[in-house]
Design brief:
Blueprint: H1 3-12, E1 25-26, H2 29-39, E2 46-50, H3 58-61, E3 67-72, H4 75-82, E4 91-94, E5 108-112, H5 118-128, E6 134-140, H6 144-147, H7 158-166, E7 167-175, E8 180-181, E9 188-195, H8 203-213, H9 220-224, H10 230-239, H11 253-264
Parallel strand pairs: 2-3, 2-5, 3-4, 5-6
Antiparallel strand pairs: 1-8, 6-9, 7-9
Length: 265
């Protein structure tokens, strides 16, 4: 959708972008095309889009002969999309994605993520859509520091650990503010996560990692011992050459992964 088409659509449907949902509607056809190209959608691909908004990406993907599900928290926008004859082949789900339980596997996930819920959406996608081999996100550029944070940095935490375990991160390009209506207050960027390993990403693993980082200055063994057997943890730490005084921020994603699965054996 062009800027003119977006303005007309918003006016015709009396849409007032809701700040509570972080709504900034993409209106740059070049950016839309570039995002969809990154998805690698083929005939029959199973695609899930989070937060379709007024359907800037949705309308293009719907013409690609794929199986598309679009999950929209704003009921008015979901109803508008569901009533659009051009989107009759798309499953429109009117629900908060953080409460959505996928009823099928997906190959590709794409989202212009509302920045205020970026972390929980990415983590839920990683856990709830394990068959996805590609995730393409529009995010706040500043947030990339947390998504791709190196071990030992202030930004390193559950989000960067889970993204690293999922696969390869890549920042693809920045997006000008005038590519949206209304323009966001911060800079945006498109990133990709590409699945390139066979790590098993479970809710239990995420719970373990979040607990390990909950009190960052606390020894990891102490953070975890309220939930897991301390003697078992100490034994696993010794087997994997993890110092008993180690903090979670000093362990690589792979080592955190290995600790969890060793503890659960």
């Amino acid at each position: 959708m062009t800027r003119e088409e977006t303005v007309r659509f918003i006016s015709e449907h009396e849409i007032l972008p809701a700040s509570k949902f972080g709504q900034n509607f993409l209106c740059d056809e070049k950016i839309i095309s570039d995002i969809i190209s990154l998805c690698g959608i083929e005939k029959g691909s199973r695609v899930i889009e989070i937060g379709p908004g007024i359907g800037a990406l949705t309308r293009v993907i719907a013409d690609m002969d794929c199986d598309l599900t679009a999950v929209e928290i704003d009921r008015k926008l979901a109803d508008i999309l569901a009533s659009d004859k051009k989107l009759k082949c798309v499953e429109i789900v009117s629900q908060d994605f953080l409460k959505y339980e996928p009823d099928r596997p997906y190959d590709i996930a794409v989202s212009n993520i509302p920045y205020y819920v970026m972390t929980p959406i990415i983590l839920r996608l990683i856990i709830c859509c394990p068959s996805c081999n590609k995730m393409v996100f529009m995010v706040e550029e500043e947030a990339i520091r947390r998504i791709n944070a190196p071990v030992g940095t202030k930004q390193y935490g559950p989000l960067s650990v889970m993204c690293s375990l999922y696969g390869t991160f890549r920042k693809e390009f920045t997006v000008p503010r005038d590519s949206f209506i209304p323009a966001p207050h911060t800079s945006s960027a498109v990133i990709t996560l590409t699945r390139d390993n066979d790590t098993v990403l479970t809710p239990g693993l995420l719970e373990f990692i979040e607990l390990a980082f909950r009190e960052r200055r606390k020894k990891m063994i102490n953070s975890l011992s309220g939930r897991y057997d301390k003697e078992r943890l100490l034994k696993v730490f010794e087997e994997l050459n993890v110092p008993s005084e180690a903090r979670a921020e000093s362990l690589s994603p792979k080592l955190l992964y290995d600790v969890f699965f060793a503890v659960m054996q």
